[in-house]
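Re-running Putative restriction endonuclease domain-containing protein to confirm reproducibility after the cluster update. Everything else is unchanged from the original entry.
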Amino acid sequence: MKTPEPRKRYTYQDYCEWEGRWELINGIPYNMSPAPSTQHQRIVGQLYVALSSYLSKGTCEAFISPFDVRLSETEDYNNPDTVVQPDISVICNPKQIDEKGCKGAPGLVVEVLSPSTALKDRNEKFKLYEKYGVKEYWMVDPIHKTIEVYGLVENHFTQREVFGEDSSLQSFLFKDFTLNLKNIL
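Result of re-run:
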């Protein structure tokens, strides 16, 4: 199968055969096109460099999209019903990483919003990341020049902080990580 039909349920095996960039959320395919804008890629690159530099001191590792994050209620990561490609994924447990990507929820996920993905990132992915236990979720809004940071407390994203272009972002998960956003947003 080259490309899936919208709103039809598919398996991970189907996903592996598709052409182009796709995500599979609860068995439903989501097309990842059009290609991200230059501004989107610039922001992702700068955040990735900052996170990678910070993480170089420990066991956590940052990955940039395309990088499959396989989520499964049954923890069957060879046949998950959900595969997403966050813009940046930070994984702190090396056992979660294999040749296909990440098995289970990363510690930190970053999504840079674009007009074609903003609703999915704010709704479906927000709920998905919360459900599967992502400890921290950043939603970067290039239009409004903000980063919303959500922290997981008792299985729910309850901590929330919004940082603007004149702010220094403070991570909930990595307490000593701060990032001046002036040259990023």
